[in-house]
Write a structure and sequence with these properties.
binds adenine, adenine deaminase activity, 50% helix, metal-binding, nucleotide metabolism, 14% strand, binds zinc ion, alpha/beta
Length: 326
């Protein structure tokens, strides 16, 4: 319909995308063959049949398994380049992508192999697709804060290549305050700070991220809606939320897209954005996230336009660059 056209035409920024979560089963099978790795599934149908999750951890188990196929700089280049071409098709103009270095270094793939492969594709995307991309280095929260400090030291030669840091993986039992000293150090370095919070975890995790850590952006943040005072603080501070509707549905954060908080968050004046999270696993890239959410929540054209504008406002672009897009 006409909203599909509007969505395709709107210039968008994608602010919550794990590059390893854009690893399509087709590409996984091709790289497995190239690297002489045997996958636990034989056909595409077998792979996709496994993509039925009842919570975050069930997804994470498959996500970490799938990425074991990624070994060489060329693999990380090809992964990132494939994503950027899909983003181009959805009229994405700017991307802030997470990656999980610890998930690669702990299986013996050097930090530089991973990072340089991604960075080379980012450069090509700027030159050939006109898409700017910022890279966000994510810490795995199921690991220790000390492991995070080790990553921070190992990554030092590349620090000027990152816009900021993130915190992802298993949320429950790993609250933001577990990483208070690490984030203090990241702030001193000059990184933008984001954390996944309130995806499965309680509103208190969102409070910690916002008020104790002082993050610049909250990833997901769904469960803030259970705490009206927290909603008021988020509105007052205009700290962005990167919502991921199809992810929320796939991981049973919501049992129906009609229960996505996006519309309520817009109506309550929060700086909410729509993103794809791990599009190869959750059934759609950013365009499909906008489309399905609009259909389920009966969003108006002006709400869709607001979401696209929010994506630039909520980005880590400099104000002058935001203005070019708004
Ligand atoms: N890593 C990749 N996707 C994630 C998500 N949705 N939540 C937490 N960690 C993740
Ligand atoms: Zn995520």
């Amino acid at each position: 319909g006409s909203q599909t056209d509007l969505i395709r035409r709107l210039p968008k920024a994608e602010l919550h995308l794990h590059i390893e979560g854009s690893f399509e089963p087709e590409q996984m099978m091709a790289l497995a063959e190239r690297n002489k790795i045997v996958l636990p599934f034989k056909t595409l149908e077998d792979a996709k049949a496994a993509y039925a999750f009842s919570n975050l951890q069930e997804f994470l188990d498959l996500y970490y398994q799938g990425m074991q196929v990624l070994r060489t700089e060329e693999d990380f280049f090809d992964l990132t380049w494939a994503y950027l071409q899909r983003a181009k098709a959805d009229n994405v103009r700017h991307v802030e992508m997470f990656y999980d270095p610890q998930a690669h270094t702990e299986r013996g793939v050097p930090f530089g192999v991973v990072t340089d492969g991604i960075l080379a594709a980012i450069k090509k995307g700027e030159q050939e697709l006109g898409i700017t991309s910022y890279l966000i280095m994510s810490f795995l929260r199921h690991l220790s804060e000390e492991d995070g400090f080790d990553l921070l030291v190992e990554s030092e030669p590349w620090h000027d290549k990152f816009i900021g840091v993130g915190l992802d993986s298993s949320e429950m039992g790993h609250p933001p305050l577990k990483f208070e000293r690490l984030y203090q150090r990241c702030r001193e370095i000059g990184f933008k700070l984001s954390m996944h919070a309130g995806e499965e975890g309680p509103p208190s995790y969102v409070r910690e991220a916002l008020l104790d850590i002082g993050v610049d952006r909250i990833d997901h943040g769904n469960r803030c809606m259970e705490d009206p005072e927290l909603v008021s603080i988020l509105r007052e501070m205009q700290v962005p939320l990167t919502n991921c509707p199809l992810s929320n549905l796939s991981l049973c954060v919501i049992d129906d897209l009609k229960k996505s908080p996006v519309k309520a968050q817009l109506e309550q004046g929060l700086l909410v954005t729509v993103n794809s999270d791990d599009p190869a696993y959750f059934g759609g890239y950013i365009g499909r996230n906008y489309e399905q959410t609009a259909a389920a929540l009966d969003l108006s054209d002006s709400q869709l336009i607001q979401l696209a504008r929010n994506s630039f406002t909520a980005s880590f672009l400099l104000d002058a660059d935001k203005q070019r897009h708004l």
